[in-house]
Amino acid sequence: MPLFINTKMNQDTIAIIGGGNLGKSIALGLLKQQYNPEQIYVTRTKVALLDDLKAQRVHTTSDNVLAVQQSKILIFALKPYRIESVLKELASHITKDHLIISVISDFSLEQLSNCLTSEIQIVRAMPNTAAAIGESLTCIASKNASAENIKKATFIFDALGETIEIDESLMDAATVLGACGIAYVLRFIRAMIQGGIEIGFDAKTATKIASQTVKGASELLLQNGNHPEEEIDKVTTPKGCTIAGLNEMEHQGFSSSLIKGIKTSIETIQKD
Ligand SMILES: NC(=O)C1=CN([C@@H]2O[C@H](COP(=O)(O)OP(=O)(O)OC[C@H]3O[C@@H](n4cnc5c(N)ncnc54)[C@H](O)[C@@H]3O)[C@@H](O)[C@H]2O)C=CC1
Ligand SMILES: O=C(O)[C@@H]1CCC=N1
């Protein structure tokens, strides 16, 4: 059953400030879980780009002040370089009754609270674009938020997938593994598809086989709680084709390239 049905948790109006890739994914995820569209505001500069949400009765506007005034929960999904100026513009309209949730990477709770008055409660969250289909993994962290507000934030992100509470010091790592992770996995799937076409499948069939196989592999870990290598051992017949292919992939730097990519991503966030 959709998570927001028959709960008290869907009584707050939510404003998503910055309806771009992630902001829109969050709005779509809320709609999928039957959050009342009339209790969702989404803002962006070019508001016409939100017409698909408007058609679903979501309030869409370029007026951030209006969205803030009409809402209890404010989810900021702006690019990091925009948040300071937008928060400063909105500061006089944000009250202690608001809950601020920032999904912005590389902008700390301290930096956020420096733009606002001290009594404002802030939660940092790091979801991914699978929020649109209720399959995000969201890490959340907070310093001054009440247990009730942390519960509220968790409830929202649980509706969009799963939520893990972390220490803020791990937020860059959460950004890389969880949010950038979607892109890494999709690139892996794309490579599987390209290989699949080379060995005989048409693109559509290769996409279906690769995507469902990745889903199945994930579910084996999520449902059984096993180590990946335990499941790999069940596939690798001695002298068989799986181990031959896997070893060739490793000779070519498969695991190493992924680990190095993850480290490069976090270094990119932490370089300034
Ligand atoms: N895209 C992703 O997968 C993820 C993004 N993030 C973080 O979320 C934030 C947003 O990322 P994206 O959605 O990818 O960026 P985006 O550029 O697609 O979205 C930002 C949106 O903000 C709008 N905007 C700009 N100025 C505005 C203003 N003054 N008022 C209202 N809206 C305004 C832009 O028009 C744009 O639609 C970034 O900080 C990013 O690091 C975090 C996790 C995943
Ligand atoms: O690439 C980025 O910087 C953002 C942060 C996480 C996903 N996209």
Automatic annotation (TrEMBL):
Entry's EC annotation: 1.5.1.2
Keyword Cytoplasm attached: yes
Q: Which UniProt keywords apply?
A: Amino-acid biosynthesis, Cytoplasm, Kinase, NADP, Oxidoreductase, Proline biosynthesis, Transferase
- Gene Ontology molecular function: any one: kinase activity
Q: Which reaction does it catalyse?
A: L-proline + NADP(+) = (S)-1-pyrroline-5-carboxylate + NADPH + 2 H(+); L-proline + NAD(+) = (S)-1-pyrroline-5-carboxylate + NADH + 2 H(+)
Q: Name one Pfam family in it.
A: F420_oxidored
- Kindly list the GO CC terms recorded for this protein: cytoplasm
Domain Pyrroline-5-carboxylate reductase dimerisation, first and last residues per copy: 168-269
- Per UniProt, NADP(+) binds at 17-22, 77-80
For whether the record's keyword set contains Phosphoprotein, the answer is no
- Per the UniProt entry, what are the Gene Ontology biological process annotations, in alphabetical order? L-proline biosynthetic process
Q: Where does NADPH bind?
A: 64
Q: Which residues form a coiled coil?
A: none
Tell me where it resides: Cytoplasm
Q: In which pathway does it act?
A: Amino-acid biosynthesis; L-proline biosynthesis; L-proline from L-glutamate 5-semialdehyde: step 1/1
Signal sequence annotation:
none
What region holds the Pyrroline-5-carboxylate reductase catalytic N-terminal domain? 13-104
What does this gene product do?
Answer: Catalyzes the reduction of 1-pyrroline-5-carboxylate (PCA) to L-proline.
Q: Which NCBIfam families match?
A: proC
Question: What does the similarity note say?
Answer: Belongs to the pyrroline-5-carboxylate reductase family.
What is the designated name of this protein? Pyrroline-5-carboxylate reductase
Q: What organism does the record attribute this protein to?
A: Kordia algicida OT-1
Show the taxonomic lineage. Bacteria, Pseudomonadati, Bacteroidota, Flavobacteriia, Flavobacteriales
Give the gene name: anmK
